[in-house]
Structure formats: structure tokens, C-alpha cells
Amino acid sequence: MKKSNKKVLSLLMMLPLFAFIAIAISSCDIDDSINQSPNAINESNVKTATGIRGLLISMQVAAGDFYSGDRSRIASMWSRQMCAPPGLGRPQPVSWNSYQMQTDGFVDDMWKLGYRGVRIANDIINYSPEVTFGANNQALQNTFIGIAKVYKALFLGELAAFYGSIPVDIQGLQAPTFVSQAQAYDKVQQLLTEAITHFASTDAVPQDLNFGGDGAKWTKVAHSLKARYYLHAMNYQKAAEEAALGIDAPNIVLLGIYNEAAGEYSVWGHWALTEVGEPIRATHTFVRALQAEAGDKRLSEYFYPNSDGNFVGYAYFNEPGIEPTDDEKDITKLVSLKKYGKYADDFPLISYQETVLILAEALARTGREGEAATQLNIIRNAAGLTDFSGSGDALIDEILKQKFLQLFLEGQAYTDMRRTGKKPSPNLPMRFIYPITEKNANPNVPADSEGLVMWQK
After folding, report:
1. Whether pTM exceeds 0.85
2. What is the DSSP letter of 314?
3. CATH architecture assignment, domain 8-210+430-447
4. Which terminus of the chain has fewer CB atoms gathered within 10 Å of its CB, N or C?
């Protein structure tokens, strides 16, 4: 899915011209008069029931690419799930192994896509009260506004996690100011609380590609996201409370949805199948971690074995106490991506498994170790592993390990490593630097500093 090269402030000044870039992924018909040309949006038509439905599609597209794109790719490399072996097609990913950042690189792409999503969410939130949807009008307004607030919270929550201080309130053409990471998380919690009130009365919305407007499922998603961002902020009591109200079944998962139509590929599917030589591969330490306990089914779920039938990761990083084998230093002997490796592979934005692991850690950190172990063993047993019965630091370490293994490519391991002080390298950046487009357009951008993110052991 194409990403725009517009500046964030330029996006704020524009009508929602990105609103309909991926309508083809839905079977729903959208009036062609809404988007007659890329530079001539008919705003009056956007402020219609058809227009809001189109905005909802577009917001889901933006959220999928935002969460599974540069954010996922770089976080997976910095947390050492993946790496870029030299000699595989493109030199750019190799530079990411050593934490190189440029203001016009991935930090710029993620920022622009995130704030594009915020803008679309704002349009839905602001326009929906002016729109008459027909029968069950109030319930439909609630559905659109509630979903938009959840997505806006997701965009802002991940932007805060990766950049620290960010803008959260954008008014007209005025250059937005930046708030602290803690204040950004407070805004995220406010949005999710408001969304939950909207979900008390909803109606079916076919353009909601995940749940069709099911308010009960969206309520659980909102609670799970509240738990995630309370965990980020190290408020473990609130994280436990929200996770207990969150997603409670494996079949409830908020997805970024893709298909095999050209231009609608998944981000990882594109990198695995289109880029020359599949330039990002699993690390030897991640593969070895999946091999550490007999019976772990995730190894064969995540990767295809090499031509010899073996599962081998690349030894790019020098890990203390681990002597690489010859195969681990040979780029012809590596596993290739299976999970998320196809064009139409959907990508989880929040899931039952993440909720269980958040609850496990939050319970362990608030003195409820028996309950924490029960939650941990849900994940272990599903992976084919036996129960874990440790306590204290060993229990927390095992929860974090299983989260690292279970939420493969989902980017949360990077946040966990910073939050707990368990960095794989002393040089691991604590945040993304601010992008060139925002620096050029907004005089309020703070100086880059690791102090803009909260973290402690």
C-alpha cells in the first residue's frame, strides 16, 4: 500500500485525500464522486454516510501499514528477532542492524503514516455527528466514532512509544505543540475510555473489516489496548485491571487486513516475496530460543526450514556465550519467513495472546504470582510447552521471554526491553529520532533526547 511523502502539517491542511486508497479491499461500493481526482476531493460528499464508510476503510488500511511496516521491521531487528545478512539484495537493511537512523528514512515514513491515520480518525470523529445514517442513526454514529477513537489511540500510543514526546491535539493550520510521553499516554487512555462509552450502543457496519461493528468485541479490544499502554507506563495495577476486561478468546483479534491484489500486499509479504533475496532473516539467537525447549510448535509456524530441512538463523550479532555454527554464518543456509510471509497474510494489532501476557506480567508485578503463572501457561501450553512453576524474578523473566517469542514481529518486545532495562546491546536506541518533514514544517519539535521516553529497570 502506497505511503505518501507529504509533510505532517501538509496533511493537516488537506482534505482527506488518502481516504479511499484501498476501498478495493472491501466488497462495499463507494460513490466515485467522493474522490474524483487525487487533488480535488469533494468535501461535501465526504461528509455523508458513504464518505464516512470510505474513511473507515482507509483508516484500517493506514493502521495495518503503520503497525506492521517500518515500526515492526525496525523493532524486530533492534530486539534481535530479525537481522539483515549482508549480501542479500539491499544494503539499507544492513545499516539498521547497527541502529543507523536518518531523519528522512524510516523514522519519517512511520511518522507520516501515523499522523495520516490520526487525521483520518479525526475526520470520522468530527464529521460523523453531522451525518445522517438513516435507521439506527445514533447507534451508527457511535459505532463509527468509537472505532475511530480506538484507532486514533493506537496511532498515538505507538507514536508515543517510539518517539516519546509527540503532538496529540491538532487544530486547523496551527503548528501543533508536543506533549510529554506520559501526557500522550494519558490522551490515549482518554480516547479509549470514550470509545468504550460509544460501544454501549452500536449497529452493524460492513466496512468494519474486523468485527462488523460488534460493540462487545470492540469494547474488549479497547480494554486490551488500555492494558498495553498502562503496561508501557509501568502502571501494573491498572494494566492488570484492564487486561482482565480485555480480549478473552483467541478468535478476537484486531487485524491489519491484506490481500493479493497489487498494491494491497502485506508489508512483510512484500519484503519476503518481492524484495530480492528476502533481505531480512531470523537471527540465530531467536531461532535458538525457539529450539531451547522440546516441542515448541512456533518454530515451524514462523519459518520454513532451509534446503537441508534444518532451522538456522543468521549470526549477525555477537551474543555472549553463543558460538555460531558454520551454517549460522552462511546466508545460503537460513530459514525463510513463513508467518506473515505471504502477500495476503493479515497482521495482528492487538490479540488475545498479548492480552494474556500483559495480564501475566501485571499480576506477577503486583504480588499475584499464582494467577500470573496460570496466565503464562496458557501461552506455553498453546505453544506445545509444559507448565512453568517458577516464581519471583524467574517468573517475570519467563513471561517476558514468552512475550518475545509469541508476539513475533509485533514490535512490543522493543518496548519491553527499554521498559525493563534488558537491552540486547548498550547501544540500542531508546527511541526514534524526529523526522525531517516535521522538523521542516513545525518549529515546536523538541531536541532529540533519550529523556523523552520513560524507562527504568
Report:
1. yes
2. B
3. Alpha Horseshoe (1.25)
4. C
User: How far, in Å, are 287, 293, 412 from residue 297 at the CA level?
Assistant: 12, 10, 21
Q: With beta carbons less than 8 A apart as the criterion, state whether 179 and 165 touch.
A: yes
Q: Are 229 and 235 in contact (CB under 8 A)?
A: no
If you search the block for the grid coordinates 503497525, which residue do you land on? 67
CA distance 412 to 161: 10
Long-range contacts of 417-423 (CB under 8 A, 24+ apart): 417/79, 418/453, 418/455, 419/231, 419/232, 419/234, 419/454, 419/455, 419/456, 420/457, 421/455, 421/456, 421/457
N-terminal to C-terminal alpha carbon distance within the chain:
38
What is the domain partition of the chain in residue ranges? 8-210+430-447
CA angle 381, 267, 147 (to 5 degrees): 75
- Alpha carbon distance 374, 278 (integer Å): 38
Give the distance between the most distant pair of CA atoms in the chain.
67
Question: What confidence score (pLDDT) does residue 75 get?
Answer: 97
Most trustworthy range by pLDDT among 35-44, 109-118, 273-282: 109-118
List the beta bridge partners of residue 351: none
SS3 304: strand
Query: Distance (Å, rounded) from C-alpha 284 to C-alpha 286?
Result: 6
Nearest in space to 114 (alpha carbons), one of 77, 79, 166, 78: 166
Please give the Cα distance from 75 to 54 (Å, whole number). 31
pLDDT for position 338: 97
Cell of 70: 517500518
Task: Give whole-number Cα distances, 259 to 73, 75, 79, 174, 275, in Å.
Answer: 20, 24, 28, 38, 18
